[in-house]
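go over this chain:
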Amino acid sequence: MEATERVALVNARGIEVEFIPLGGTITSIRLPDRHGQFVDVVPGFDTVDEYRSDRRFFGALIGRYANRIAGGRFVLDGVTYTLPRNDGPNHLHGGPDGFHTRVWHVAPFKSANATGAVLCCRSPDGDSGYPGTLVTRVTYTLDDDDTFRVDYSAVTDAPTVVNLTQHTYFNLGGHDRGSVLDHELTVHATYFLPVDRTSIPTGALRGVIGTPFDFTTPKRVGADIGAEDEQLATVGGGYDHTFQINRGGATGLLPAARLFEPVSGRFVEIATTEPGIQVYSGNTIAEGGPGKGGHRYEKYAAIALETQHFPDSPNQPHFPSTVLRPGAEFRSATVYRFGVSGGWDRHRGDAEKRREARRMTEET
């Protein structure tokens, strides 16, 4: 499959997730509001060439290591590995040639109640400085219960580190509908990771209760974003922090976050097997060219909710380990459940008619 070919996953209710093989990049997600009106809720570009030059990671699969590694270096089994520094003094999102730049092999599939695709990528030993040949498989599945699931797996032939995520941003009012400051956010976390001025975790965990980082109950994204808080100032006047998901020792999928847009009624609920979720409020999203339809995304135009292990874990051994060894398999899953607060179910029949019309068109 060519890098430029677009793959559309559509469920029985008309929800659509579209992606391209380049970076496994999600280029659009079309969701209805409470009146059944569908809009695209993720920022991005009109052409694949624009995604090639993107530095905001719109919609991309991120690896080998999501988030930052301090100083672009880590030590594993007594050997020091050096990585490209593409974020000031640090390594970010696998470097400038990370998984977001690769053309993934794509194998679409369909079942009775779902449609999806398996994406594969082989990263050779020494790729961007990482040890071991890493073979990664990511499965996108959109089912008729309005759930979009991302399953990750990876194997290696030498000890290495792995941290994978999906970097889609959301504006549930529509990708071109202004800021997300009035979206309501819930994060199932009572601790977050404070960072230094280069956005590397200090190593501490800090409680969120009573602070601008308290999203334990629904709160406007912009409610405290302008507060006089040294952590907000550190990352440029917004959120770009990892929250430790409340797991209580449990394994498997657990709730991580919920994002709700009150005007349209759209929401997305996120559950994951990962220990953390990075909340990035689009503080620097304006630093780039225009997006879809020539629209310019301003500061806070969208929010990214990236499930992952902690930043800089290879250099902070008290964090959950990101080491992968031969004979073991990295496995992770994140589920996005889309919905509308009130009113959409009465439009279900229309959505199913659209799906049937699309199927008939494809067959002819």
Notes: The two ends are 22 Å apart (CA to CA).
